[in-house]
Amino acid sequence: MVMSLTSKHLFLAGTLLRMGFFFFGIYQDNNMPVKYTDIDYLVFSDAAQFVYDGLSPYRRETYRYTPLLAWMLVPNAWGGIFVHYGKFLFMLCDILTGYLISKTLVKSKVSLSNKTRLILSSLWLLNPMVVTISTRGSSESVLTFIIMLAVENYLSGRLNEAALWLGLSIHFKIYPIIYLPAFMYNMSSQGQSFPGLRKVPILKLLNQTNIKFLLVTIVSLMAWNIVMFHIYGYEFLYHSYIYHLTRLDHRHNFSLYNIMLYYKSAIVSSVSSGSGLFWDYLGQLMGSVEKFAFLPQLLLSAVVIPLLLAKEDITACLFVQTFAFVGFNKVMTSQYFIWFLIFLPHFLAKSRFLSTKAVSTGVIMVALWITSQACWLLYAYKLEFMGESTFNGGLLYSSVFFFLTNCWMLGQFIDYF
User: What separation in angstroms does the CA of 356 have from each of 32, 228, 363, 375, 393?
Assistant: First the structure.
């Protein structure tokens, strides 16, 4: 009975916290020059309005998501209090993500006390960053909910259901595809292997279980894509997938590639306006920046880390994979941190960071992570709100500082697991 009440108190606190942030956001939007609501929420709402009117969501410029998201937010177009419908949907998915985190912690290989499980669950449910993201109108919680559904089904042995949810998550955003090698390698010792492949490197890891998981994931992904392509055609493929492969976004970007993207965007602009051979040469020289960025990122997150950790523990592996993917991504905003935070409770439950000997290392990691972000935000504030040119100085150095901090933390995560 105590466990039930304590769990209820945690979820009640998480719900009230989100409601408090939501109502403060309304006040800030109406009374302060800097708005609380994320600009993306306005984009979602406009796209939903187009869908409500029987048109394509891609008629809204900068809508770069699956049409499924705009479909889900159609009630936003009803007006009145329904303009906040999307935020309530995102907050609901946020809470449900927390519920699945708590539920899957029970299935952890490590025996956890109720107190420890609740503390780990609170890292999501009571996390101000998580709460802010969903209450500002970011859709990340919808994706985290789908991913956690895949994980919960996988840990429960419902592999087909897990693969279906994983396929949907990849349709929603491309990056969860990095989890597929981890799941398959985790299953490589399960099921009947193929006699002809037992002596073939890499292929010997394939068996009937993980091949079936792969096929169901592909079928799920392709089913959603075929439906959307049938309705919206090439614009669906371009805005949902192709655009993100060549995306240039140097604003609000923590990434190490931030400065290169900034200069490339300037070069592209100069070339398009016919500014001369010098700019044309530089444009060609830097033309593969966004393509090159994927190589170390995918090699590390989709190959090396699964080979190191997937057999040890799948959820811990997913955390380290996602942390590496975000750290090496060519575009990185605060919203992306949510991607790996869903797995942080699981990782901590199985790592040595909960031991007293590792507390000092954990404190240093958190302090460096926050400090390096704060440095970047300081120079970004000077650039955006004070009009100071900080790209060549502070913003560059703080991006390098943050990247190196993430690299060191990645090594610590692997070492302490």
Answer: 45, 51, 11, 30, 39
Question: Which residue's entry shows tokens 């942080």?
Answer: 344
Question: What's the N-to-C CA distance of the chain in angstroms?
Answer: 34
Strands of 41-157, DSSP E = none
Structure tokens at 273: 């306006």
Q: Of 88-92, 111-115, 254-258, which has the strongest mean pLDDT?
A: 88-92
Give the C-alpha separation, 17 to 194, whole Å: 52
Let me know: does 282 contact 267? Beta carbons within 8 Å: yes
Kindly tell me the sign of the dihedral angle through the C-alpha atoms of 381, 286, 255, 29. positive
Range of weakest confidence among 37-41, 166-170, 184-188, 258-262: 258-262
For residue range 226-238, list pLDDT tens digits in order. 999 999 999 999 9
- In DSSP terms, 30 is beta-bridged to none
Burial class, 321, CB count within 10 angstroms (exposed 0-12 / middle 13-18 / buried 19+):
buried
Assess whether pLDDT exceeds 90 at residue 267.
Answer: no
- Amino acid letter, residue 214: L
- Report pLDDT digits (tens) over 17-62: 999 999 999 999 999 988 999 999 999 999 999 999 999 999 998 9
Predicted confidence (pLDDT) at residue 417 exceeds the cutoff of 90: no
Contact indicator for 76, 85 with CB cutoff of 8 Å: yes
Q: In whole angstroms, what is the distance from residue 183 CA to residue 342 CA? A: 17
pLDDT of residue 54: 95
Distance of alpha carbon 236 from alpha carbon 115, whole angstroms: 46
Q: Give the span between the Cα atoms of 226 and 214, in whole angstroms.
A: 18
* Rounded Cα distance, 321 and 135, in Å: 27
Contact by Cβ (8 Å): 71, 51: yes
DSSP state letter for 330: S
CA distance 90 to 72: 11
**Backbone phi, psi, residue 139, to 5°:** -90, 5
Q: What is the overall mean pLDDT for the chain?
A: 87
Reading the block at residue 251, the tokens are 């604003």
